[in-house]
C-alpha cells in the first residue's frame, strides 16, 4: 500500500454535479462562463440540487421558499448576541450552523424530502447568520430578510440595512454563482466523508465549514486582502512579492491543485474587480492585484485562483475582510448540500487506508522500566 500525498490525482467518487475537464468547469454540464454571465444564483442552486435549470414557476417557488426560510430561530440569535465580538468569523459560523440543528425538529430525519427541506433552510439561513453576526458585533440590530428578494440582494440588504444598488447585486450574484460548487474540493469532500457515515446534513455542513476555514482553501480570500493591505501601494508590490518568493513564502490566491493553466473563474472576478473599482473611484486594489499577478505568473508560472480577485471585489462592495470566507460558505453551501444529497442517494462508507510508516515489532515495556 503506497499513499499519495494530499490524495493528488486520486478519483475518490463518481458525481454528476460539477466537472473540471481539460481546465473547463461545468455545473451539471453547463459551462461556468455561461452561468456567470447569464444565471441568477437561485437558478444555479436549483441546477445543483435538482440536476436541471428551473422553469419560471420552479424558480419563483424556490425564491419564495428561500426567503420564507431565512428567519433565524430566536435561540440562535441569542447565541449570536452572546458571542464575543472579536472571534474568528468562520469559527463563529461553524458554531451557529451547528446550533441551527438543535432547533430543527427534522435535523435527524433521513427522509429525502426532509433533507431537501433542510438544504433549503441551510441555504436560506447561512446568509442571515453572516449578516446578523456582522450587525450584532457592530452593536446594531439584525435585519429581517425581504420576502421575494434573491439571496444576493437580501444578503447585502441584511448586512447594511440599505437597498443595495443594482450593480452591487449583479456583482455579488456573479460571485455567488462562481463559488457555488467545485467538484471534489476539500470542504465538499469533508462533507461527503461525514455524511457517508449516515450522519445528518448539519454535521456534513459543519465539517465543510471547518475545512473551508483554512488558508489553503476558502480562507485564502481573506489572506489576499491582508496581503494587499500589507503591500499598501503599487510601488511596494515588486519588492514585496520578490521578497516573499525568494523566501519561499506562498502568495495567497495563486496556484491550484487541479488547474495548472489558470482557474476559469478568475477572469470573471478580475473583470468585476476592475468595473467595481472604476465605479467606486478606487482602482488601487485592482491595479495592485494586476501587478501582483504579472509578477507571480512571470516568476513562478502560477496563475490566480478564484480567491485572488474576489478580495478586491468584496472590498469594493464594502464588505469587511473577515466576512469574505463566511461569504464563500454562503455560496458553497449549495454545492455542499447537493453533494450530501448525492452521497445519501448512493451511499457507501468512505474509509480509505493509510500506508503505515511507524516502527514495527516493538516490545511492550512495563511502566516501571520506562
Ligand atoms: N505561491 C508560491 N508558490 C506556490 C504557490 C503560491 N500560491 N502555490 C504553490 N506554490 C509552489 C509550492 O511552494 C511548491 O513549490 P516547490 O515544489 O518548490 O516546493 C509547488 O508550487 C507545489 O505546491 P503545492 O502546495 O504542493 O501544490 P498543491 O497542489 O498541494 O497546492 C494550493 C494547491 C494549496 C492551492 C497551493 O497552490 C496554495 O497553497 N496556494 C495558496 C493558497 C490559495 O490560494 N488557496 C486557495 C485555493 S482555491 C480554493 O480553495 C478556493
Automatic annotation (TrEMBL):
The active site is at residues 256, 307. Keywords: Transferase, Tricarboxylic acid cycle. Pathway: Carbohydrate metabolism; tricarboxylic acid cycle; isocitrate from oxaloacetate: step 1/2. Pfam families: Citrate_synt (PF00285). InterPro entries: 2-MeCitrate/Citrate_synth_II (IPR011278), Citrate_synth-like_lrg_a-sub (IPR016142), Citrate_synth-like_sm_a-sub (IPR016143), Citrate_synthase (IPR002020), Citrate_synthase_AS (IPR019810), Citrate_synthase_bac-typ (IPR024176), Citrate_synthase_sf (IPR036969). GO terms for cellular component: cytosol. It catalyses: oxaloacetate + acetyl-CoA + H2O = citrate + CoA + H(+). GO terms for molecular function: citrate synthase activity. GO terms for biological process: carbohydrate metabolic process; tricarboxylic acid cycle. PANTHER family: CITRATE SYNTHASE, CITRATE SYNTHASE, PEROXISOMAL. Belongs to the citrate synthase family. This is Citrate synthase. It comes from Xylanibacillus composti. The lineage of its organism: Bacteria, Bacillati, Bacillota, Bacilli, Bacillales.
